[in-house]
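[Automated response] Your request has been received and processed.

Submitted sequence:
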Amino acid sequence: MRKTTIVTAVLLLTVAAAAQAATYKIDPSHSAVSFKVRHLMISTVRGSFDEFSGSFTYIKDNPAPWQVAAEIQTASVNTNDSKRDDHLRTADFFDVEKHPTMTFRSTKVTGQGERFKLHGDLTLLGVTKPVVLDLEITGETVDPWGNHRVGFSATGKLDRKEWGMTWSRALDTGGVMVGDEVGIELEVQGIQES
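Generated structure:
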């Protein structure tokens, strides 16, 4: 009887350990933080941030304990146009001297299957506002070096004016130079740490 109790206790501890969410470090060389915004109201300009870091906790099929924390270096903005990027670094937009980073901290995850809603707080230009992103788990695998990896995509929209980013210019033909709505597109791959 005692042997059965010990075996049962060991099995329960094993199951409990397996059920705990693991922590993953974001792999920047296999991840992307991108955005898009309307220009002159006739086309869309895309850009990205080349320097970012973060981590997340994850356990398959159980979003309740998932958490995400990320930091983006605003000076790393890249739209493939150096003059425009220099303007984006000024106080008209990201004001990188006063606000060198923007951060995201999740507050909860809702949904099921492979599609979820990622709720969190985005801090930009010293202002913190809630955002909700559509989240999709894109896969899990073990790489050739034995590292467990998880991938996800997240997309959403925000109004940049809510964070105090209001610069634009009215056009003689109507409309504005830069749209207020910003599309967010994230492709993230994480490597398990614990």
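Summary generated for your ticket: Residues 21-192 form a domain with the Lipocalin fold (CATH 2.40.128.110). Helices lie at 2-19, 82-88.
If you did not submit this request, please reply to this message.
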